Batch of 3 targets.
Target 1
Amino acid sequence: MFIKNPFKKGNKLYSILHLKCPKCQQGNLFTYKNAYNLNKLDKMPMTCPVCGEDFYRETGFYYGAMMISHATTTLIAVAVHLTVFHFYGWEIAPNIFSLLFILITLFPLIFRSSRAIWINCFVTYDPAVNKISSSK
Ligand SMILES: [Zn+2]
């Protein structure tokens, strides 16, 4: 049985993990590479620099990404709680402080990946775009 590698170009997972344009998977979704530069965390070009795909499809488009972020944060919270519960039981302090530390540390990554997942819900990969842009 042939299973397509999800980490190769042409797959949505590639676009999400590399934070690339969902249509051409070449242009960067975010203007600045460093997610931990909090002043520039959310800076995205209006359109893809390679294929011209509109990254701001409508006003408030990325409000939907908050639902992805919420789900991700919930999954992380459950995982952290189960891990801490294993070592400390129902103690409040270890639970809250480890959860806060992990969520604050991961916030920029969750923020950006949520936006990438959200735009990938609406835009599909188009290999023809790459042929056009590479022949220029
Ligand atoms: Zn593109």
Note: The radius of gyration is 18 Å.
Target 2
Amino acid sequence: MTALERDGGVIIEGLLCPERLARFLAWLFPLLDAAPDCQGDFYGYATRRLSGLIARVSACRELAILPLILQLMDIMLLRGCREYQLNLTQAIRIGPGEPRQFLHSDALMFPVKVPGSETMINCMYALDDFTEGNGAAMKAGSALIYLGSVIHAGGANRTGQPRTGVALSYCLGWLRQAENHYLAVPRELPERLQRLLGYFVHEPDLGSVDGQGPVALLREPQAEPPRFTEFLPEDAKTLLAEARAAMRND
Ligand SMILES: O=C(O)CCC(=O)C(=O)O
Ligand SMILES: [Fe+2]
């Protein structure tokens, strides 16, 4: 069992080097400065949230595909799906005076339990120093990776300064994503990122367009209409091929 499973969360210190952190802040903070406070007893009233970070903050594209994070997701989420996806990108700036958030687990948005697997894993990157006074504890540039099932809450901010983090969560590839990336992101992105955003077919046959994988649709249209194709796991392909061959011999 990994430390993440045993403890429900792990902090990776210094995951963002100072240069990457500075680049992130330069893009994100002006957007947060201009954003209105949220309105909601869960989201808060002295808290600002900003989604669509893949489109808005180019530095977030690197963050979404950090090799160490994807290796962790491979271990954790491929237990419950054949390919996982980005669930949500959200900057969270908890302002002075915001009380402690309602205790919750982030995976509550998915009304299912999957035997042997989490439905989602969250990565919270600290962009400011998180302190006991402002509601949490880790240094800017560190990341807390925690299970979707873990009960937690943003702590009260009792200081005069805001506390800013960025949450990127990943979920099983056959679930609906919290963020509607299809409407939020531009069409031109690296294919790895497109797949991670949900432009893929989860085998068998979940999420195709005209019998094609959705990434094909994002590219140039083809002259000939492509053949309607099936998307099957390897073991199903083998079984079907054998069954078809046996029928030919009937
Ligand atoms: O920003 C935080 O400290 C946590 C926020 C949180 O848990 C949430 O909004 O789901
Ligand atoms: Fe949460």
Note: The chain has nine helices and six strands.
Target 3
Amino acid sequence: MLKRVLFTVVLAHVCLSVHLVSQIRFEKYFTDETCRFDYVHTGTKGSEQFSLSAVSTEGAWPGSLVRLVDTLNLGEYQFRVVDVEEDRVIYSRGYSTIFNEWQTTDEAMHGAYRSFNESVRFPLPRRKVKIEFYRRNKRMEFVKVYATDLDPGDVAINREKPLSGMPVTKVMHHGSPHEKVDIVILGDGYTKKEMKKFLAQARHYTDQLFATHPFASRKKDFNVWAVSVASNESGVDEPDKKIWHRTALGVSYNTFGSARYALTMDNDAVRKYAAVAPYDFVCILVNNARYGGGGIYQLYATCFTGAESKETAWHGDYVFVHEFGHSFGGLGDEYYTSDVPYTDFLPAGVEPWEPNVAALVTRDELKWRDLVAASTSLPTEWQKSVYDSLSAVPRTLQRNAPDYAAKRKTVLDSVTNFLDRHPLTGVIGAFEGAGYMSKGLYRPAVNCRMFSKSLVDFDPVCSRAINSMIDLYTK
Ligand SMILES: [Zn+2]
């Protein structure tokens, strides 16, 4: 058997707190350009290896000039740019990867290896730096897993200009990219003839996002750009239907065997097209009416567009904002009834890093305890058994039956009614059932955009996380 462990994570974790207190002066350490660091992330369950593939510049730096060190402690990974001369962290961001999701699939559990292309972006340093990568251990502490030197004077750094000739539309503009969150919307599977449709949908989903609390009240902190990327063919890949289309970004349904999980593994294409506009966050609209999407923290969110039927026309509105909650806010799924392809997404007994999912729920430990009223019991009883019996019904229905859609709608409406009229609406507590687990994980409110399939706003804990993220890019 030639199975080899490529890399074992046994390195001491490093405390960053010393670096967080003092402000980094941008001009001293950085030029106002973007540096993109590409690497291949290889491994299987329990082991991983990073290897540098390319470093390039990508136009002006769109991020904050002030909030350079990440204080939010979100994400499965964190990268740090360390000034060598002063041994000081001058930039950092938490993020998550498709690789770490893949590690929880059966394929990885059985020892298969796979490689994923990933990138991190940071302002181009003026002098030599170390790029350090950290991964959370089982206790959720960041442990260094890879580090490499970067000399900004290296002639091998690719300084080609970003792609030209791609029309960029200002969907929403409120000011300098340095002081705003910049979202770039890309489309996949739209032909040249469908560019009008793409732009109309980019506007539609932007409106949906900013109709949802708390984004609605922070609209002026955002710029939204749409890059008109044309694909040769209309629609994206649907492997389970044997439908294949060569598209600009390579989005495909059936990621990790899940019918509705639509991601692209073509990191280079996404980055290349996104860099045509100033961006902090990427949204990909998928030119396909089949329900689906996905969102990875600090990578991108995808969303189907259009609708399978008139009755379900709002589903895309729900998905777009929900997936953006993952990719922007680092929010975890609060639902627990759906089948997902992961087998150990959150290990038992571990407090997840997601700001809206908790395992520890005593009054002293609960991470959103400052928002819980003294009169609210912890954990908070919420008639879970009623909800469970209502939401179990759709899985008993025959998918191929002619009245499937109608029957399913009736059941889902009853679930929505239960949540909308719940006596604990507006109460912040610890409601059992979150993060794909029916037991042992808790969410902050009865209902939220990260919990139920409806157009409900984000709950107060998710809203606080979203607001903190907006501040990181705008303050
Ligand atoms: Zn989700």
Note: The chain has three domains: 17-150, 168-331, 351-450.
